[in-house]
Amino acid sequence: MRFRIRRSAHILERLGLAMAGAACGLFVSAHVGSSISFLTSEGFLLLMMIAGAVGFYLGIDTPKMPFHPDEDRTRIDSAEFLSAVGTFLATLTAFFSVGIIVLRSEPDLAWTILIGLGWTVGIAMQIVAGAIARARA
Hints:
Layout: H1 2-35, H2 42-59, H3 78-102, H4 109-136
Helix pairs in contact: 1-2, 1-3, 1-4, 2-4, 3-4
């Protein structure tokens, strides 16, 4: 019984992370799509939401590398690093997108492209981090 409750809680946590990623993808795509006309489509919104859900699902709750004090002094856990930086980039760009939408601001096109690229790189880093961590687990 205890195992089932723990497993259910873990699944709910991961689904919550996926929904947060999808929401972040929605905000970024709403901002980028409203500024770049050929990206104004439901397909682009859906693609960004799916990418956000997959990235947050795989990349945030990654299994940790086993700790060996003698060997790990100079070794960096690439999955943990990619997950941290990717999560930061993805949420930072979503935060900026929400601010731009709420304040009804119209930033220069270069800022919009930078936000879109930051989101894409962040989500890609999360997906790669999740794949690395699960391959070694």
